[in-house]
Design goal:
By secondary structure, the chain is mainly β. It has one helix at 4-23; strands spanning 30-46, 58-66, 72-84, 93-103, 106-116, 132-140, 147-154, 159-169. It starts with a helix and ends with a strand.
């Protein structure tokens, strides 16, 4: 059981932290930005001891990123982990996805879960995926404090189109 001294000390610390944070509140606005990037996969590496389609299967990948003018702008680092495997009756495999986009020396982080059917998994040529949605959870550099959504679509030529709808805070100068 928590003793009274510990409880009072915790309350005092919490009050002090809340007061400091309240004194630092500033008013800010946000700007909405849409970014479209094309990914051309460079490297794919599977977990060595867990087969694709099995629970816990990890896929690591990276790919060059290009803007809509086909200019190189950075690189994508990503992982997917199989977190739910249904029976073999055509249901989707659920994977946790984490993507780190390094764009012009800044980063955008996105993550979430997506379903994958057998006919659209990695290595299936000429397979086009329905768009997969992720949450933009943050970034650094030009994208500090960014949040929003990311829609990823795989095309038949094994390239990907990533469309961001993000909000960035207008930071004080």
């Amino acid at each position: 059981m928590v003793n009274l001294r510990t409880l009072c000390a915790a309350l005092l610390i919490f009050t002090g932290v809340a007061t400091v944070q309240a004194n630092e509140i500033i008013q800010m606005g946000f700007i909405k930005e849409t970014i479209v990037l094309e990914q051309r996969t460079l490297a794919i590496e599977h977990h060595p001891s867990i087969e694709d389609g099995e629970l816990g299967h990890v896929l690591y990948f990276e790919g060059a990123l290009f803007d809509q003018d086909h200019q190189y702008v950075g690189i994508l680092y990503g992982t997917t982990v199989s977190i739910d495997i249904t029976d073999k009756t055509g249901h989707h495999e659920v994977r946790h996805r984490e993507l780190i986009f390094v764009v012009n020396d800044s980063q955008i982080i996105a993550e979430g879960v997506s379903g994958y059917s057998d006919d659209v998994k990695w290595g299936k040529p000429n397979a086009e995926w329905h768009p997969l949605d992720l949450v933009v959870t943050g970034g650094n550099g030009k994208y500090v404090g960014a949040f929003g959504t990311l829609k990823t679509k795989k095309r038949k030529d094994n390239t990907f189109v990533h469309t961001f709808h993000i909000y960035k805070p207008l930071l004080p100068q």
